[in-house]
Amino acid sequence: TRSVEEVMSLTREAGFGALPEAETALMRAVLEDAILCYLGRGRRRRMDPRILAREAEFWILRDDWESPFSFNNVCAALGLCVSSSRREILAWRDDPTRARFSAEAFA
Fold first, then answer.
1. CB under 8 Å to 61, separation ≥6 — which residues?
2. Mind listing the pLDDT tens digit for each residue in 38-70?
3. Are 86 and 61 in contact (CB under 8 A)?
4. pLDDT tens across 5-40, in order?
5. Dist. CA 71–CA 88, nearest whole Å
6. pLDDT over threshold 70, residue 106
7. What CA–CA distance (Å, rounded) separates 62 from 17?
8. C-alpha to C-alpha distances, 63 to 40, 67, 89, 106, nearest whole angstrom
9. What's the CA gap between 85 and 88, in Å, rounded?
């Protein structure tokens, strides 16, 4: 299984197909923010981190191929397997030792 850092580095190193670099960077940022929020590390002014975590979990769990920035489409655009990425991310919150994550992973 992969740590958050490993998944994020894969999204940086993978070939992203025909998507322009700016769109790929935006999709990567959306996924990274959702992971942070899901793990309870998201920060928004006047927003409870527990609410952010629930919203991120809903986004991750939703099987949506219609919305351009759905979890499914973001993973697919980044060259990640949707089902295994979903499974890995969901497991991180339950097992903190697997989610060796820090802000430096996105630097």
1. 71, 86, 90
2. 988 877 777 888 999 999 999 999 999 999 999
3. yes
4. 655 555 555 544 556 788 888 999 999 999 989 988
5. 13
6. no
7. 24
8. 22, 10, 15, 26
9. 5
